[in-house]
Amino acid sequence: MSAAQLTARRTGPLRGVVRAPGDKSISHRALILGALATGVTEIEGLLEGDDVRRTAAAMAAFGAGVERLGPSEQGGGRWRIEGRGGFAEPADVVDCGNAGTGVRLIMGAAAGFAVSATFTGDQSLRGRPMNRVLKPLGQMGATWICREGGRLPLTLRGGGLKHVAYTLPEPSAQVKSAVLLAGLHADGGAEVIEPEATRDHTERMLKGFGAEIEVIETGAGARRIVLPGGQRLRGTRIRVPGDPSSAAFPLVAALITPGSEVTVRGMLLNPSRIGLLDTLGEMGADLSVTNVRDEGGETVADITARHSELEGVETPPERAPSMIDEYPILAVAAAFARGKTTMRGIGEMRVKESDRIALMAAGLAACGIGVEEEPEAMTVVGAERGNHPVAGGATVVTHGDHRIAMSHLVLGLASEAPVRVDEPGMIATSFPGFVDLMRGLGADIGEEAPATA
Ligand code: S3P
Question: Is the pLDDT of residue 453 over 50?
Answer without folding.
Answer: no
